[in-house]
Amino acid sequence: MLVGGMTANQALASFLPMIEYQFDDQTDFRNKVVRNHYFTNYTGTIAGNAVAATGVLGNSIQMNDSNVYVEIPDSKSVTFSRGLTVEASVWRSANTNEDAVISKWYGSDQFLLTFYNEGNGRLSFQVRFSDGTLGAVEYAIPSNSYLQRWTRVSATYNGAGQLQLYWNGQKVAERSFPKSGMASGNVPIRIGDANNTWSRFNGRIDEVRIWSRVLRSSEIGSTLRR
C-alpha cells in the first residue's frame, strides 16, 4: 500500500525516530549492548563500566564513570539531508565541566549537543555546515535548580541553516544562518561524549531519540514516556 508515494513501512519509518534508546529491557549492561527500540539497526556499544540507574520511567544509564559513553558506528545510511532532531532526558550531577549529551563530532564534525559550565550552565547545539563553517545556538540556564533532577533537552536543525533549542519542551533559543546542508562526516554517534576525553557526561541519560527530520514545536517532547 502506498501512502503519499511511500509504502506503509516507509511512511512509518519516516514518522519514527531512527534511533531510540530507553535503557530498559533492550539494554544489556553486562554485555555492553544497547538495542534500538523500533529498528534492528543502529545498535550501540557501551564503553566503560556503565550501570542501570533510576530513569524517567524505568532505567537510565549512569555515566559517572569518566570512561562511560555509548557509541553507534558511523553508517552511510545515517544522513540528515532533511534535517535533524536530537532529544534526551538528562540528570546532570553538577555544573563543573563540559557534559556532552549527543554528538557526531570531533574529527569530521557534524553536530554536538552539550552543556558548558559557565554560570549556572549553558546548553549549546552546534552544527558544521557543508561549507566548513560552524553554526551554534545557545541557552544560558537561568538557575541551577535543574541539577540532580530530570530535564528534557531537544535540538533541531532544518537543513537550511536554522537551529533551535528546547528546554522541557519549550523553545528557548533559535538562530538562523545563510547556509544549506550539513557537512559530511565519518565519526560515530556518541551519547554522553563528544569523541574526546574531556566532555564525558557526569550524571544519567535516558530516553534518547535521534530523528532524520525536523520535529515541529508541537512534537518536541510529545513522545516522552510519562
Radius of gyration: 16 Å
Q: Which spans of ≥5 residues are poorly predicted at pLDDT below 50?
A: 1-11
SS element count, helices:
1
CATH architecture of the domain at 74-211: Sandwich
Q: Could you give the distance between the termini?
A: 33 Å
Explain this structure:
By secondary structure, the chain is mostly beta strands. The protein has a domain at 74-211: Jelly Rolls. The chain is 4% helix and 42% strand. It has one helix and 19 strands. The protein has one helix at residues 8-15; strands at residues 2-3, 6-7, 19-21, 27-28, 33-34, 44-47, 51-54, 59-62, 69-72, 84-92, 99-104, 111-116, 122-128, 134-140, 150-157, 162-167, 170-176, 189-191, 203-211. The strands form three sheets. The protein has a nine-stranded antiparallel beta sheet with strand order 4-5-6-9-18-11-12-13-14, with no helix packed on it. Strand 11 and strand 12 (111-116) form a beta hairpin. The longest helix has 8 residues, at 8-15. The protein is globular and about 45 Å long.
Which helices and strands occur, and which strands form pairs?
Elements (H helix, E strand, L loop, with lengths): L1 E2 L2 E2 H8 L3 E3 L5 E2 L4 E2 L9 E4 L3 E4 L4 E4 L6 E4 L11 E9 L6 E6 L6 E6 L5 E7 L5 E7 L9 E8 L4 E6 L2 E7 L12 E3 L11 E9 L15
Antiparallel strand pairs: 1-2, 3-19, 4-5, 5-6, 6-9, 7-8, 8-19, 9-18, 10-15, 10-19, 11-12, 11-18, 12-13, 13-14, 15-16, 16-17
Briefly characterize the structure.
The chain is built from 1 helix and 19 strands. 4% of the residues lie in helices and 42% in strands.
